[in-house]
Fold:
Amino acid sequence: MNRIHDLRAFAAFALAFSFSATPLLAGYVEGFTEPNRDIEVSIPGEPGLITEIRVKEGQKVAEGEVLVVLDTKVLEASLAVAKRRAAQVGRIKAAQAEVALRRSRADKLRQMSQRGNASPIEFKRAVTDYDVAKANLILAEEEQDINRLEVARIEAQIDKSRLRSPCDGVIVEVFKEAGESTQISDSRLLQIVQLSVLRVDFPVSIAEASKYKAGDRIDVSLPEISREAIAVVEVVSPVLDAESGTVKISCVIDNAKGKFRSGMSCQLPVEGEGSSSDDFNVDFDSLDADDIIDGQN
Structure:
């Protein structure tokens, strides 16, 4: 009888616990931190010769900082020629002089034609020569503009040969060394990751996903270092993954102080359905000692 009494007490305790434990914490979903940006810097355009690599693995870099310098000797020679052409004004001056001469001749023939001392054909030819001279001046000016644009183009190519960091970040791998030539088939130079912000995706159920919206701040844990963090929801996917039956929640974590590493496990607590008193409809009066003892065996 004492055993029966103890079992009744245990069942009553379980029933009382069921009222206080709804909803129950079912566990968590796991994601892994990733860099906000993961970029491979490659040589643009044609193959080239690396003359200088100014960074090394593990080095922090700022946006716009020069990372790699390529050989620019050919471009610098072309730039010198282009600058010389752009500075030439001889053709423009000659064209300007020709315009002045043709305009003066056309004016004189107009006056002579009005007095009957020049034929209309001569005057018309003078006007045509004047128009041609003006067109030649325009062509000379346009050519000089093209020469100036060529200078700007080559200067841009030279600047492009100084590869700069696209963002604040950390160099995680350098693929080439100074003195190596790059090929179109293998143009990778180095890899940069941006770790000031980390990204993490959580696969959750439809019911759990409905609790979140963009901009929500949620508590997450990083068990590998026993720390907590605040994640901000960026996107709650509108698409259900058919294979897993989950919805992806994409979040970002501020890591400006570098407290967290990329690749860490990140856990988002999720709530279960819990238990209620309906799960414990036990008629103790209908049980006898044998029933209770049999149920324990």
